[in-house]
Amino acid sequence: MYVQGGDTVALTMEVSDHGRRLAESSGWWETFREVLPSPLLDIAELEHHATGLRSANTSHVPGLLQTTDHAREIFRQVVPEFSRSDIEHRVNHRLQRQALLDRSSPPAYRAVIHEAALRVPVGGPAVARNQLRHLLEQGEREHITVQVIPFAIGAYPGSGQTILYVHGSVPRLDTVSLDQSHGPVMVDAEAELEAYRLLLARMEAVALTPEDSRDFIHRLIADQ
Hints:
Strand content: 15-25%
Oligomer: single chain
Pfam families: DUF5753
Distance between the termini: 34 Å
CATH topology: Endonuclease, Chain A
Protein name: DUF5753 domain-containing protein
InterPro entries: DUF5753
């Protein structure tokens, strides 16, 4: 049973014997094969094998850094609405994705987040504060870097895009996942990968330093 936050009753996800065998031979994401779209499983598999991760988010906190309550509220707002079980499947999948950051040898992860994503009180003030505190805690970990792009920066390269760059064991295995309204889109052509590497580097360059980003998030918490 997966433990959920807030006042929502935990949902026990039953996994068939076939699903368990498949997960053991292929990966944990296979237990979701019959309940989630394939692109979500593809993202989990890419992250599982990644040697490094970079992301840029304008409107949402990146999934790998979301709290349980924040993630659940995001899924509640999807149109057309998800059923309660669909929401819990997606929340559980997201939490299992995050487990890669807790490995003994986790991939390095650099996240660039725009101020807009930090100021939206997803789930209400209490959930929003807990989410900001969680970002601070995660950003203190040696392998996780959190940078904020404040409104004061103005226009910047990549504005409005949600990007997840997954570094493979060799560069030709790199993949970019772009969050579109109809679902994630994968990009792996070298010319496009190079463009996204450059774009992310420029976004990281205009963002606050990790130290200044922590101070910025502390001020956001104090202002709430």
